[in-house]
Amino acid sequence: MASTVKRPVSEPRILIVGLGLIGGSLAAALRAAGFGAAKEGAAGFGAGKEPSAGFGAAQEIVACDPDPGEIARGVEMGLIDGGATELSSVIEGASMVVLAVPVLAMRGVMVELARHLDRAAPDVVITDVGSTKAAIRDCALEAFGRVPPRLVLGHPIAGSEKSGVAAANPGLYVNHKVILTPEPDTDPVALARVRAIWEASGAEVLEMAVERHDQVLARTSHLPHLLAFSLVDTLARQDERLEIFRYAAGGFRDFTRIAGSDPVMWRDIFIANREAVLASLDDFEAGLARLRRAVEGGDGDAMLATFDRASHARHYFESLLNKTSYQAEYQMQQQGKLRYRVSPGGSVTGRIRVPGDKSISHRSIMLGALAEGVTEVKGFLEGEDSLATLQAFREMGVAIEGPHQGRVTIHGVGMHGLKAPSGPLYVGNAGTAMRLFAGLLAGQAFDTELTGDTSLTKRPMGRVADPLRLMGAVIDTAEGGRPPLRIHGGRALKGITYDMPMASAQVKSCLLLAGLYAEGETRVREPAPTRDHTERMLAGFGYEVQRDGDTCWLSGGGRLTAAPIDVPSDISSATFFLVAAAITPGADLVLEHVGINPTRIGVINILRLMGADLRLENEREVGGEPVADLHIRYAPLKGIDIPVEQVPLAIDEFPALFIAAANARGTTRLRGAEELRVKESDRLQAMADGLAAIGVEHRLYPDGIDIVGGGNAEGPNYGGGRIDSLEDHRIAMSFAIAALRAGDEIVIDDCANVATSFPGFIDLARRVGMALEEERAEEGA
User: Rounded to an integer, what is the distance from CA 324 to the centroid of its chain?
Assistant: First the structure.
């Protein structure tokens, strides 16, 4: 649990026992924050400053250290107000005691402290900075007979190769974590006071159990130090050691830098945390043995799987811990809230190519991983959802190279080659990934859990869980059939005939993927045509899928053979620019290499019915998918009743089509689109709210909307306004293009998700002639 609210530091007298780098830096950080800075004679850090809020003029910091020279140096630097080599000389009136001594010295210090604690303040709080907590808790039990309620064990995750108070750094803890390990009966007021001193030092404060802390630190800190010491020692004892160190590259120096840390301190840590260190060392040795076997056997795929998973692990776990996007971590993008400010007017001309199709990118990774052989993918969408799918397969042991400039190489493991992931598979905001994964994982021999971000956990998953259960799968969901999904492996699946209650390509694809592992035929009947990328790609990988009218089916037990994939540009992404050109007088735009799968061209059909001048040029087939260049020029649009059979063919494109309707002459009516209410947001409501904000007349229905267009051939069709995108990328981009015919600027909040779904949208918008600026938005602004 992380701290979010900073508390004032109201300690009158802080005693630091052990004035080295850690204790000295804490004193320096408190001084820099204004603690006791008004006290006469204080020099150096904090000198001459007024006390900050929460700090009193009578506050002081004193120290105890066996080296009188360190005490003198701390006073000279202005870090402490005084000190002594004996604890009994400085304990008087101490309101907080910080034990910053080596782990193996802790027992003796605590015994001494227990003898003199009655001379400290009545409500004295004790804390420490040791990197092992169970051993220090044992010291407390021995010294005090129990763990005192006002003893709060802690560990700042910060350090340096330098030691001693001379190396004290007031910024050492800024943006670093401090882990507190309170006991069940720890005094909450004492806990809050310890939090306060670390937060004043700029640290992020978290809590965890003592045992968990020691396990985690054994793996993340103690084991790396142990390995660095061992490697440097091994190389230093070889005959050619001088040459080795002379030509060592930067990576070697970076890794082995920690071998320059204090040997005595690390000896103490390894002794104190022996069991957890040995457990982590066992895991490491097992992994190293696997890698050795791969090197000995020349198993390139096994090596690549390990190296590639390791290469991306940092980005992956950073995105999970910080609740940021994969894409931002992969591409070093800035995090935080974004706002679009779009000036009215602009032009739409030129030739552009939008990113690859998300649906096909998803499936290319999934089927490539299950195929036998190596699959080369071009045009892969390096967006949030498809990166989540890619990472999930890495977690299941698949070697994947890239992505790099849209190219991905997948080393397939075959239908039964996936391995159990070490934890839940996190798919971010990717509803497609979660629903398709449910089918694919239902046929595996191992258990898995699928989870996602807060938006995804609100979306219904019963629509795939229920038919999978009919096939024999065992799936647990959260209340209301929502994520996370817990899929129990090792179940014998049987093919079923399933009549889908709603038209959904995700449900159909989920059942077909489960059908790969089922006995007999799996048949799916759809009430209306849906995108057929899964069927086409399965056929491309050599797996027979049959269709008769509204029903498609396959038989389980086959195999997939690797095949190259050239991902067409995403027609959903192209839609924003199709509509932009359709509503802007003088527009003339070509969108290159766009997928025109017959199950995806609802937007083309609808725009043509509205009167758009839209032509398909250079039609061809690439990897089983039809593509074309879309050439669109401005022509006045008219309102229409959208044919119900076109609704499932354009379900993702309606937010942009609503903007086309707002610029048409007459009323556009949509019905049968209740699916829009369970997307990343309730898109019917979100678009209706946005249209109201800019003054577009409309009427909302449970399954659709009527939009009365402005119909002006020149000039604005509505005003400007401020839009809440609800963090839905399609809402944000739709109102961005709406500004082309607005009377005033349109400001759109919460646009960060645009970059995760449509990389490069802003650059393309500016290239064709839109006046769009992005600005960092303050939290809560």
Answer: 4
Burial pattern 450-467, b for ≥16 Cβ within 10 A else e, equals bbbbebbeebebebbbeb
User: Which structure tokens are listed for 612?
Assistant: 């758009």
Confidence class for position 495, pLDDT limits 50, 70, 90: very high
pLDDT in tens, 652-679: 999 999 999 999 999 999 999 998 887 7
Write the single-letter amino acid at 715.
G
CA distances (Å), origin 262, targets 59, 163, 177, 523: 32, 8, 21, 66
Highest average pLDDT, of 53-62, 248-257, 613-622, comes from 613-622
> Which residues are annotated binding-site positions for phosphoenolpyruvate?
358, 431, 459, 506, 683, 730
CA distance 332 to 336: 13
Quick one: how far is CA 720 from the chain centroid? 33
H-type alpha helices, 663-724: 683-693
Q: 611 — alpha (psi -120 to 50), left (phi > 0) or beta?
A: left
Rounded-to-integer distance, Cα 64 and Cα 654, Å: 70
Concerning whether 652 is annotated as a catalytic residue, the answer is yes
Strands 497-499 and 521-525: parallel
Cα separation, 285 vs 367, whole angstroms? 33
219 secondary structure, DSSP code: I
Nearest alpha-carbon partner for 695 in 716, 715, 713, 677: 716
| Catalytic residue from among 308, 629, 652, 750 | 652
Asked whether the beta carbons of 753 and 732 are under 8 A apart, the reply is yes
Eight-class DSSP state of 646: G
Binding residues for 3-phosphoshikimate: 358-359, 363, 504, 506, 652, 679
Give the pTM. Answer: 0.64
Residue 396 token pair:
């299941």
Count of residues making up the chain = 781
Specify binding-site residues.
Answer: 358-359, 363, 431, 459, 504, 506, 652, 679, 683, 730
The string of pLDDT tens digits covering residues 356-388 is: 988 899 999 999 999 999 999 999 988 777 888
Q: Write out the two tokens for 557.
A: 């037990």
Q: Which residues contact 228 (CB under 8 A, 6 or more apart)?
A: 255, 256, 257, 258, 259
Torsion of CA 450, 452, 455, 459, to 10 degrees: -10
- Which of 480-507 are b and which e, b meaning 16 or more Cβ less than 10 Å from the residue's Cβ? ebbbbbbbebebebebbebebeebbbbb
